[in-house]
Design goal:
Blueprint lengths: L1 E2 L12 H8 L27 E3 L4 E2 L2 E2 L3 E4 L7 E3 L4 E8 L6 E6 L4 E11 L1 H14 L4 E3 L6 E3 L4 E5 L9 E8 L5 E2 L1 H4 L11 E13 L2 E4 L3 E9 L2 E4 L5 E3 L2 E9 L13 E6 L2 E7 L2 E2 L7 H4 L2 H4 L5 E4 L20 E2 L5 E9 L5 E10 L12 E3 L5 E5 L2 E5 L8 E3 L1 E3 L18 E3 L5 E11 L10 E6 L6 E5 L1 E3 L2 E8 L1 E7 L5 E4 L5 E2 L5 E7 L5 E8 L2 E2 L3 E3 L2 E5 L11 E10 L4 E9 L1
Parallel strand pairs: 18-27, 19-27, 41-48
Antiparallel strand pairs: 1-11, 2-5, 3-4, 5-13, 6-12, 7-8, 7-10, 7-11, 8-9, 9-12, 9-13, 14-23, 15-16, 15-17, 15-20, 17-18, 20-24, 20-25, 21-22, 21-26, 26-27, 28-31, 29-30, 30-34, 32-33, 33-39, 34-38, 35-36, 35-39, 37-38, 40-42, 42-46, 43-44, 43-47, 45-46, 47-48
């Protein structure tokens, strides 16, 4: 890796594209990932590319933005730049991508390497100096273009398990630099990822829909088991024609596999035909990060929660703006006013060209399901909505819902279990609509607090489980007699006061002799709102902590402290999200 010594400054990441083109004046500035020759990129590791996750899998509130490459269950595999370029961005965080590098390439693309264990030494030194200078453990750095130049196939660091990683692997992405649009690496065929296994079709669900006051009212799903006639060919276990309501839509429950791995993966595309005419289709070739939360409309949100399969809605809701759909008729809804028998064909595609097909007959109009008119207030998803009363105020911005709903809010009768709930409710428990309805943007929930209390510090809003046994932190601040918080989830809410500070447990005894040890660590935790920050000093000097799970670790070689073989004092302060702080002091010899 060639370095260029210059003044370090943090620049806006969107300016990287302009800097890239200036640094490489002969670059193909309009070229995107999809236009790159197949041999432009080399693999990021010298291992067989076995995937544990593929592109655009449906995850909680987002699409997976890259591919996850297995590293044999261990950390420390060498990582390599996939093409010439320079390091445009470096991230270090206890969550998300963890330790991550972004390399800008002269063709207008960026490669991303996440959950790393270590960067190469000169990059590590730069990051360490910047963290100490800024006194921040979590940093997002933008070195000047050309400061860290790399060549195709040059080593850039080691694979790891940092950030929000559940096991050692490399999360890898290819993006268009100007827009940061992420692309389906497997579908583009840059690398040899063996896959001759067609998608697995698990079940088919049908949801009848009636419209009441311009609000679509969904009936309970009807589910149908599928059987395989041969490899990639499926049929309904009940071969007679289905009798269904004359208006509704299908949800396909499916998953995919790749050779030599048992990991469940997402479906690249689905087509649906009715009597030979295409009425629904999508392909997951790429997406912008602004669109990633549309996954909650792409899938059936209520059924998707808790399932390892994908439950793909074969219809497009009114508020779903994700531009992956094509050839959609009547938003994918099945509409018929007579008892005509229709032929349905559903084809599922993976990103390596394998397909599975399900065909069946359906008789619409003869199996009408009664749909009860729900309680509540009709709410137009395209307009903002506010509702107050009984100590609760809720405000939902326009375009936060994927379709109109009948909205409800009221004081709930759930009983909080004091043996399992960590805190005592200070207000009634309020139900704000239905937790199985997704929100695209955050709503504001405000709850009135009784005025007789003289201490309004450490107040926040908590979400209550349906059985009243568990609380989860939502957040919020007190002002003018109420606590307000933003949240992207409906459910049960109340106000609590969190005055319990985090716990901090050192891994060594006070005064311990740590000569010969490479690090010093502490276990930090909080029983409700969670750890918000952690800081440490040794002999008055700010020090870097690395966080993995509940453990923060300081490596002795990452500080400017002068260890002279004598006694040293370390001070650690940990603060939770409600502002409670625990500070401990210990001495050690090194």
């Amino acid at each position: 890796m060639r370095t260029k010594i210059s003044h370090w400054r943090i620049i806006m990441f969107l300016a990287v594209a302009a800097a890239l083109f200036a640094f490489y004046p002969n670059s193909a500035q309009s070229q995107g990932v999809a236009d790159v020759p197949k041999d432009y990129y080399v693999p990021p590791m010298n291992l067989r590319l076995l995937l544990s996750a593929n592109f655009a899998e449906a995850r909680t509130d987002h699409f997976h933005s890259g591919i996850d490459i297995k590293t044999g269950g261990k950390e420390g595999e060498p990582l390599f730049a996939v093409a010439d370029g320079y390091i445009a961005r470096i991230g270090v965080s206890p969550t998300g991508f963890g330790r991550v590098l972004y390399i800008a390439h002269p063709n207008g693309t960026t490669s991303v390497y996440a959950h790393m264990q270590r960067f190469e030494p000169e990059v590590e030194q730069y990051v360490e100096q910047e963290r100490i200078r800024l006194k921040k453990h979590r940093v997002d750095l933008y070195p000047e273009p050309g400061m860290f130049q790399v060549r195709r196939g040059e080593r850039i660091g080691l694979s790891g398990n940092s950030g929000s990683s559940l096991g050692p692997h490399l999360h890898f992405e290819l993006r268009d630099t100007p827009s940061q649009r992420v692309h389906n690496v497997a579908k583009l065929g840059f690398y040899d990822i063996k896959d001759d296994i067609p998608p697995m079709l698990v079940r088919l669900h049908y949801i009848a829909v009636d419209t009441v006051n311009v609000v679509p009212v969904n009936a309970r799903p009807r589910s149908f088991e599928l059987a395989a006639a041969s490899r990639g060919v499926y049929y309904l276990a009940d071969t007679t024609a289905l009798k269904l309501s004359p208006c509704g839509y299908f949800v396909l429950e499916a998953t995919d596999r790749k050779n030599d791995t048992n990991n469940t993966m997402g479906i690249y595309g689905v087509d649906m035909e009715l009597d030979g005419e295409r009425v629904f289709s999508y392909r997951l070739d790429s997406f912008l990060f602004d669109n990633t939360r549309y996954v909650n409309s792409f899938t059936h949100y209520g059924m998707q929660k808790g399932s390892r399969n994908e439950l793909i809605r074969l219809a497009v809701q009114d508020g779903n703006r994700m531009p992956i759909y094509r050839g959609v008729k009547d938003r994918g809804a099945i509409i018929c006013n007579d008892d005509t028998v229709r032929q349905v064909k559903i084809t599922a595609h993976d990103d390596n060209g394998n397909t599975s097909v399900l065909t069946f007959r359906v008789c619409l109009g003869s199996g009408k399901q009664p749909v009860a008119i729900p309680e509540g207030i009709p709410v137009d998803n395209r307009r903002s909505f506010s509702r107050g009363g009984e100590g609760l105020q809720v405000s939902i911005p326009a375009n936060s819902l994927y379709e109109p709903i009948y909205y409800r809010q009221y004081t709930d009768s759930v009983t909080v279990n004091p043996r399992t709930a960590p805190l005592r409710p200070l207000t009634p428990v309020y139900r704000v609509h239905d937790e199985n309805t997704p929100l695209h943007s955050a709503m504001t929930v405000s709850i009135d607090v009784p005025g007789e209390s003289d201490d309004f510090s450490r107040l926040c809003i908590a979400r209550v489980s349906a059985d009243g046994k568990k609380f989860s932190y939502v957040g919020g601040k007190y002002s003018n007699g109420r606590v307000s918080a933003s949240t992207r989830n409906f459910g049960l809410f109340t106000v609590v006061r969190d005055t319990k500070a985090p716990t901090v447990n050192p891994s060594f005894a006070n005064g311990a002799d740590l000569k010969g040890q490479q690090s010093i660590s502490f276990n930090v935790s909080d029983d409700f709102s969670g750890v918000a920050s952690y800081e440490g000093e040794i002999d008055g000097q700010w020090i870097i902590f690395e966080k993995q799970g509940a453990v923060i670790t300081h490596y002795f070689d990452s500080s400017s402290v002068n260890y002279n073989g004598g006694e040293h004092k370390i001070v650690v302060r940990v603060t939770d999200n409600c502002g409670n702080t625990t500070a401990i002091e210990r001495t050690f010899i090194r």
